[in-house]
Write a structure and sequence with these properties.
Blueprint (H helix, E strand, L loop, with lengths): L22 H10 L1 H12 L2 E2 H11 L5 H13 L3 E6 L5 E6 L1 H40 L1
Antiparallel strand pairs: 1-3, 2-3
Helix pairs in contact: 2-3, 2-5
Length: 140
């Protein structure tokens, strides 16, 4: 990961959210957040309307609240990863899709998700070995 090579410290405002201090980390947090991962992976397939996307995410795991999905979509839109297309029709229609930048990020996230699925057995074995060692150390 590229790190800023600037010799002067970034400006800090009174209401700093961490963005001015470490923008790379902030974007990484958005992309890899609980709901960010699922939104990006779902949108790789096709554009979704809000309610469709919420249902699709619910099929993968625990459902996401409207508030959390709205916040996640707004954050990803602000980062330039998601495009919100609001059409002035009755009833209003809003579609969400990935931008080129979002597609690139989503493909990376999907690769990590696929790796996790493939290697979960090895992770579970490592956890068991660790737990046994910790339990033995606690008894000794």
């Amino acid at each position: 990961m590229a790190v800023s090579t600037s010799t002067s410290p970034p400006a800090v405002s009174g209401n700093d959210t961490g963005e001015t201090m470490c923008p790379h980390r902030l974007v990484l947090e958005h992309v890899t957040s609980r709901w960010g991962v699922l939104v990006l992976i779902e949108l790789l397939d096709r554009p979704y309307r809000f309610s469709e996307l919420r249902r699709a995410i619910g099929r993968v795991g625990k459902g996401v609240s409207e508030k959390m999905l709205t916040q996640t979509l707004q954050t990803l839109e602000r980062d330039g990863l998601v495009h919100r297309d609001a059409r002035p029709v009755i009833p209003p229609r809003v579609d969400y899709s990935l931008t080129d930048l979002g597609r690139e990020a989503a493909e990376q996230v999907r690769g990590l998700a696929e790796w996790t699925q493939r290697r979960m057995g090895a992770v579970q074995e490592a956890r068991q070995r660790y737990d046994v060692r910790k339990a033995a150390a606690g008894q000794g």
